């Protein structure tokens, strides 16, 4: 199955080659694209050189997060690892540019390097593995790729899924294409899921039960701000006796609906 998957990637690569050349011609995207290809060129060369600098004889943990949500989930894990394993090198890869920016804001002091993740191309993933020489690979929540996991397994690198979750929609898709997803899930040495229901689903997909454990949601382990800090923030946001409405995890375009709802509520309050 992996052979067919990579064959399809090659075919798509030929078809999309003109698009790739256009992307590489633009300075805005060139550095990140080369980095994700694992090529020792331009910005990618410096990023890889810095990533492996000083890692000799020190354990290396490679953590991967897809985007903003997964990076946020990884915060308590990374902080705990840094506190308990001060001499360990932690390298974080992130798939999206927005997620990488959040990672640089929240986790820069706790990791050695933050890089864009490789495309799921065998030569690109192999370059990352060679550069990092990880002692363990930790994937946060989702973003499963066949070549990543197969090459890590081939190199004997233990792999772990943390904060795993499976929605009903994803579960249906995983079951429909079990021939593709089951080998990936089974390649993990340990799968830490958010709930017992997630554990049930992953075992129904063929993962041995002794590899699966429910440890809750990492986001609940986030540090809460001190009481004095909360009071200060609230005092800056509103006067005493005023309501504060916080809308979190919004997506582009949703603000207009929020503002419309606020306007309607304010109109009712004035009546």
From TrEMBL:
Catalyzed reaction equations: lipid IVA (E. coli) + CMP-3-deoxy-beta-D-manno-octulosonate = alpha-Kdo-(2->6)-lipid IVA (E. coli) + CMP + H(+)
Q: Which GO cellular component terms are attached?
A: plasma membrane
Q: Indicate the transmembrane segments per the record.
A: 6-24
Main localization is membrane
Which pathway is it part of? Bacterial outer membrane biogenesis; LPS core biosynthesis
Stored InterPro entries:
Glycos_transf_N, Glycos_transf_N_sf, Kdotransferase
Provide the protein's localization. Cell membrane
Q: Where is this site: Transition state stabilizer?
A: 141, 219
Q: Which GO terms describe its molecular function?
A: Kdo transferase activity
Enzyme Commission number(s):
2.4.99.12
Catalytic residues at 70
Checking Gene3D superfamilies in the record gives: 3-Deoxy-D-manno-octulosonic-acid transferase, N-terminal domain (3.40.50.11720), Glycogen Phosphorylase B (3.40.50.2000)
Show where the 3-deoxy-D-manno-octulosonic-acid transferase N-terminal domain sits: 51-222
Q: Name one GO biological process term.
A: lipid A biosynthetic process
Keyword Transferase annotated: yes
Alphabetically ordered keywords of this record: Cell membrane, Glycosyltransferase, Lipopolysaccharide biosynthesis, Membrane, Transferase, Transmembrane, Transmembrane helix
Report the function annotation for this chain: Involved in lipopolysaccharide (LPS) biosynthesis. Catalyzes the transfer of 3-deoxy-D-manno-octulosonate (Kdo) residue(s) from CMP-Kdo to lipid IV(A), the tetraacyldisaccharide-1,4'-bisphosphate precursor of lipid A.
Q: Which family does it belong to?
A: Belongs to the glycosyltransferase group 1 family.
Can you say what this protein is called?
3-deoxy-D-manno-octulosonic acid transferase
């Amino acid at each position: 199955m992996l052979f067919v998957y990579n064959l399809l990637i090659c075919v798509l690569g030929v078809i999309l080659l003109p698009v790739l050349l256009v992307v590489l011609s633009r300075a805005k995207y060139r550095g990140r694209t080369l980095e994700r290809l694992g090529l020792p060129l331009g910005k990618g060369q410096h990023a890889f050189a810095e990533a492996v600098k000083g890692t000799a004889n020190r354990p290396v943990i490679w953590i991967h997060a897809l985007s903003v949500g997964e990076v946020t989930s990884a915060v308590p894990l990374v902080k705990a690892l840094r506190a308990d394993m001060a001499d360990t090198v932690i390298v974080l890869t992130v798939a999206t540019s927005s997620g990488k920016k959040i990672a640089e804001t929240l986790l820069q002091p706790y990791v050695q390097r933050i890089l864009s993740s490789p495309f799921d191309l065998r030569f690109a993933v192999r370059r990352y593995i060679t550069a990092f020489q990880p002692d363990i690979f930790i994937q946060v929540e989702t973003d499963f790729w066949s070549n990543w996991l197969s090459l890590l397994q081939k190199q004997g690198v233990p792999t772990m899924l943390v904060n795993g979750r499976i929605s009903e929609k994803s579960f249906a898709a995983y079951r429909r294409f079990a021939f593709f997803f089951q080998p990936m899930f089974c390649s993990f040495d340990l799968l830490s899921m958010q709930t017992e229901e997630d554990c049930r689903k992953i075992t129904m997909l063929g993962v041995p039960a002794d590899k699966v454990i429910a440890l809750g949601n990492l986001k609940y382990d986030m540090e809460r701000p001190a009481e004095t800090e909360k009071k200060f923030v609230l005092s800056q946001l509103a006067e005493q006796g005023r309501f504060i409405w916080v809308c979190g995890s919004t997506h582009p375009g949703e603000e207009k609906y929020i503002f419309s709802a606020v306007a309607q509520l304010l109109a009712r309050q004035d009546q």
